[in-house]
Automatic annotation (TrEMBL):
Organism of origin: uncultured Nocardioides sp
Source lineage: Bacteria, Bacillati, Actinomycetota, Actinomycetes, Propionibacteriales
One GO cellular component, as annotated: plasma membrane
Cofactor(s) this protein cannot do without: Mg(2+)
GO molecular function: ditrans,polycis-polyprenyl diphosphate synthase [(2E,6E)-farnesyl diphosphate specific] activity; magnesium ion binding; Z-farnesyl diphosphate synthase activity
Function: Catalyzes the condensation of isopentenyl diphosphate (IPP) with allylic pyrophosphates generating different type of terpenoids.
SUPFAM superfamilies: Undecaprenyl diphosphate synthase (SSF64005)
Cofactor binding note of this UniProt entry: Binds 2 magnesium ions per subunit.
Name the record gives this protein: Isoprenyl transferase
Entry's Gene Ontology BP terms: polyprenol biosynthetic process
């Protein structure tokens, strides 16, 4: 009861004093802890994933509130596709499809799938592409939904795409080797044309990237939160934004 009274006032105060010039443009979120949450509350794994999916729309609302422009949500890794039991993956993909459909139907955000869509079942890939197409002209936050995503796979795909492009132009490998730089590779990433993430948030207390946005996060700030993803609240998000705003960014120096 006390928390319900005090937290709104505390949250309002945090928002009021956030410096508008120190808000991250791009926030990456690793939505971790769904299975542990399910075990903690005596639910099955699918209920944990659904509870996590239900927390995505509130998160995007909080991002809108403070002025974030791009959000990347890591929903399923490429490793998960091969390491998890097929029946668990099937259920999770169904939940992801429903969550993405819901985001698209809201008409507030632009959806952009990132990941190796060729690794996904055709139905899932089609649903993700349909969500992207239906929200293409929406002016709201750009939401990258990372499904079947792995950072190493992304870099390999970017290099492969770069090689195909230059082969089509008739560029020899020797000529390409003379001119290739980081910008060439960046132009072929899943997130090409977007700002790199300023802030990466990982829930559940784990303090590792696990392959999330490996290339793009070279200069990112990181925030690790103990809350399991389904329990991640507005106050947790605002604390992450405040912590980011208070840091002196050194950009590798």
């Amino acid at each position: 009861m006390v928390r319900r009274v005090l937290y709104p006032a505390y949250e309002s105060r945090v928002v009021k004093f956030l410096p508008s010039d120190r808000i991250p443009r791009h926030v990456g979120v690793m939505l971790d802890g769904n299975r542990r949450w399910a075990r903690a509350v005596g639910a099955d794994t699918a209920e944990g994933y659904q509870a996590g999916a239900d927390n995505i729309r509130p998160l995007l609302g909080w991002c809108e509130e403070v002025g974030v422009e791009v959000v990347t949500l890591w929903l399923l890794s490429s490793d998960n596709l091969t390491n998890r039991p097929p029946e668990q993956i099937d259920g999770l993909l169904g939940i992801i499809e429903g969550a993405v459909d819901s985001l698209a139907e809201a008409g507030r955000w632009r959806i952009h799938p990132v990941g190796a869509l060729d690794l996904l079942p055709p139905e899932t890939a089609a649903r993700l592409k349909a969500a992207e197409e239906s929200t293409r002209d929406i002016a709201g936050i750009l939401v990258n939904v990372a499904v079947g995503y792995g950072g190493r796979r992304e870099i390999a795909d970017a290099v492969r795409s770069l090689l195909h492009e230059h082969a089509g132009r008739g560029t020899s490998l020797e000529e390409l080797a003379e001119v290739i730089d980081v910008e060439h590779i960046s132009a072929h990433l899943y997130t090409r044309g977007q700002p790199d993430p300023d802030l990466v948030i990982r829930t559940s207390g784990e303090q590792r990237l696990g392959g999330f946005l490996l290339w793009q996060s070279a200069q990112s700030e990181f925030y690790f939160c103990e809350a399991l993803w389904p329990d991640f609240r507005r106050v947790d998000f605002l604390r992450a934004i405040r912590a980011y705003a208070e840091r002196e960014r050194r950009f590798g120096s």
